[in-house]
Description:
Chain A is an alpha+beta fold. Chain A is built from 16 helices and six strands.
Amino acid sequence: MSEMNTVRSNGTLQLINGKKYRGELVAGETGAAFYAKGQKEPVAEWHYARMNRMDNIRRGGTTSQITVILKDDTRYVFELAQGLKLYSHMDKNWADKPVKVKTRGDILHEQAERLGEKIQVPKKHLMARRHPNRSITGDVIIYLLLALVAVAMLFPLVFLLGSSLKPLDELFRFPPPVWPTRPTMDNFSDLFVTMGQSWVPFSRYLVNTIFITVVGTFGHLVIAGMAAFVLAKYDFPGGRLFFLLATTFLMFASGVVTDIPNYLIMRRLGLVDTYWALILPAFAAPIGLFLMKQFMEGLPTALIEAATIDGAGRFRVFWSIVMPNVKPAWLTMIIFSVQSLWNNPAGTIIYSEAKKPLVYALQQIQGGAAVNIARTGQVAAANVIIVAVPVLIFIFSQSRILETMASSGIKD
Amino acid sequence: MQSQSFAHRYLAMRRDKIAHGWTLAKRNKGCYLFLAPYAILFITFFILPICTSIFYSFTYYNILEPARFIGLQNYTNLFLQDEIFLTSVKNTFVCAVIIGPVGYILSFLFAWFINELPKWLRAVAVIVFYIPSIGGAAFEVFNTIFRGDAYGWFNALLMEYGMINAPVLWLTDPRYMLTIVIIVSLWMSMGTGFLSFVAGFQGIDRSMYEAGYVDGVRNRWQELYHITLPSMKPMLLFGAVMSITSSFNVGAVPRALCGFPSTDYAARTVVTHLFDYGYTRFEMGYASAIAVILFVAMILCKKAITGLLGRVGT
Lengths: 412, 314
């Protein structure tokens, strides 16, 4: 880091565990370092390349975290505390103007200038645009295309919501309106009346679904988390092979291929017509194991080794060090697990009416939707309820899921 | 002499390797303990079913009577006598060939386009594109949209503009059924793979693009081919695996939209055929044979795609 281009600033660095350092941030061309007050060696160093990477995710709205690489190559995720920005001494108005980080193009340009060469990259052009290789026409076309497709993607959902709010006369008007002129909640109240006529009370279906979803998801988190932990962090014979197998089974996770033999096995085990027929396979869902393992690989091994040296048992390490550090992955696992459990009507494996999940009960309403014209509105209302839960969960956790999916690749 | 000593050395090496593995395994005993609960469940509910399928596919088994070994008869019946199965294979093939590659390429392209949007718009776009695939039963709304009478939205639209005179039975006319199944499946194809792509794009080091620009990359397509694709390879593979699943597992959509069984079996796919024999007729042996064929087709497809993707960007 040459003295010429460094930038210094006082600030606070906050670790994710709440530990705070006051001190000075020194930023240079390729990276930056943070010196705590009174210490000669930097507490932390990081590189713009890596910072950009995290910064990209941050711009996606996730978090204001940066990954910092310490001298001994351990990695920590830091939170950028409020007020910590890069300010320049050289600039007169440094107090309110963050420094622009130099791009590689800039640096190359400077080098060329120093050597007296002519570089063909016009500097202004490179700096003026965020994306150097984008034509305006292309951008416009892409925006239009995206808008068009987004409308096409949304239309059926809007139509569904519209139908559920339509009063009876508007459901059968020609031409059918997409959105009702007089929206009403009648369909929803009718749906609850219809559901109330079943000899199994509505609340029973709800309790079934909640029980299956909560137990299935929690067990999946712990069991798949434990397996992912050892697969990601220890090298033991058979581990790699097992993971490869689990990766292959990502393809069969939706259960069509394994559905019928699964039924036979459940019968052998005496699990048909119990909640466990849904819960136990959910524990072992390969997608959760896969995502968790890939995400855990990003955790610094030093973190685990340090704890092991401190005398923590493997389970302690797993439970109090690894698991708290992979929260985005948890959330993703929870969402995929809730989605699949919530959407599973389990029609083939649970027979007793009193044990059926909510989705099955709602789908019974639409039994023969094509014939049962009278219930068109109620069917739409039931579908809105079925769709709403996973969609709402996704909307609220979208950024965390994307953070996890960043490590979802399959390396060969 | 030479070869003998070579064989000897080779055997010694194997022995060493096994011994080394054994010590490694002993040292990491705890790992197996951690893996065990998952492994047991995984083997019971994922591996074992495949083995059971293979076993029952050589038998006649209707659950009531004990399974009776009949050799390859299920398979020969499937291919030589069951015309509906051949229809279902044809339909599944058409679906897979369209939904798989098209859905895959579309989800990649849209993830790429979305990545260029400002951050708040990107979040909205991800949600809009992903919702159809998580919304479980959301696709059932197409029952109303493509309804066969004049109150169906699509029929009404076409009649308004005078393109048709009488309502078309979109969901029960064999001419249109498969097309509609494919359209609906494409609508749902922005799934987990799509999310993986979006995240992958955001994870690419921006300085690589700047370096690329300096090195002579001049437009977005060159950038895509030379920089983006090679760094996205792991996500591409993940997305491919996910799209194999969705393209072969077309079953719920035709069942819910076109009825089960559908008119003239025009929307019959391998999956609905499997359901028919498994859960309506309880011919488990026959159903298992269908499952095995599906399993083998998916494995082969994955092999081919892995090989293909290995060449991307080189």
